[in-house]
Amino acid sequence: MEIVKRLLEERVCLVTGAGRGIGRVIAEQFAAEGAIVYANDLYMGDMDSWAKRNAEKYMTRMIPVCFDITDEKAVKQSLSQIMKLEKRIDCLVNNAAIISNQKLGMIVMSEAEKMFKVNVLSVINMIQIVARLMARNGGGGIINISSITATNGSAGQVAYSASKGAIISLTKSCAKELATMNIRVNAIAPGIVKTERFEELYESDGEKIDGRIDKIALGRLGTPLDVANACCFLASERASYISGQILGVDGCASI
Fold first, then answer.
1. What positions belong to coiled-coil segments (predicted)?
2. Domain locations in the chain?
């Protein structure tokens, strides 16, 4: 009987913002596909017990790593430690982000600056460091999480849309720069995904969100698993000739 190899068997993957929402499901799905998962978040919370359950369930290793992605020293130390332990990093998913929804005239610059620091500058720093480590072992894959707001725009989300638009631009530029090192860089632009954050937004402005849901051609909200499955594909050898691409996971809402 032929044994089917899992999509990410024994690949060393780091997922940021894995404490909740989409990031948590990405980490779980990577583990299900056989990856050795380093799950990052700012706070430990229940990550120890959660990681242990997934490691046992999927017969792999899942290791929580808590650090602030905006802390350059902490990032460098954590990635160096992973490299020391595993001898390689095969995939990085830049998922961690913050969101502050404000109309143009109400944008608070200090909040916008914080959002860009987390959503954009920290991603550049993560890529700078991990690219050097990946290059030592012949390459790897980087996946950045953008948003449909970056491709379509969204009233009331000017600063957030701009930060996610920057992710698209840096993804394409990094892909060109890092191709010679066999490092692939892609982005995923999710549409409306039903997460804890979505539930909070729906409570505050359900009527507006219902209007956006009506525009989804496939007739349903996205799920974190939809995004996670796309990440698994881009992290795998099946995507070995794909780089610099922005994959919309939005139920055909962006066209």
1. 75-102
2. 12-191+230-248
* Strands in 102-172 per DSSP E: 140-145
Residue in the block written with tokens 């830049």 = 94
- The tens digit of pLDDT for each residue in 99-151 reads 988 899 999 999 999 999 999 999 999 999 999 999 999 999 999 999 999 99
The predicted-structure confidence for 196-243, as pLDDT tens digits, reads as follows 766 665 555 656 666 778 889 998 899 999 999 999 999 999 999 999
Query: Looking at residue 57, what DSSP letter applies?
Result: H
Neighbours of 133 (CB within 10 A): 16
Q: Which one, of 177, 157, 171, 79, lies nearest residue 123 by Cα?
A: 171
Residues facing residue 14 across a β-bridge: 38, 92
Of 193, 165, 144, give the one whose Cα is nearest residue 25: 193
For 5, the token pair is 């190899």
Q: Which CATH superfamily is domain 12-191+230-248 in?
A: NAD(P)-binding Rossmann-like Domain (3.40.50.720)
**DSSP 8-state code for residue 55:** H
Catalytic residue numbers read 160
Say if pTM beats, i.e. exceeds, 0.85. Answer: yes
Q: What tokens were used for 239?
A: 């995507």
Among residues 68, 184, 166, 67, the alpha carbon closest in space to that of 124 is found at 166
Tokens standing for 46?
A: 């229940």
Q: How far apart are CA 44 and CA 106, in angstroms?
A: 33
For residue 172, which phi and psi values (nearest 5 degrees)?
-65, -40
Half-sphere exposure for 71 (CA within 13 Å, toward CB): 11
User: Phi/psi at 153 (nearest 5 deg)?
Assistant: 75, 160
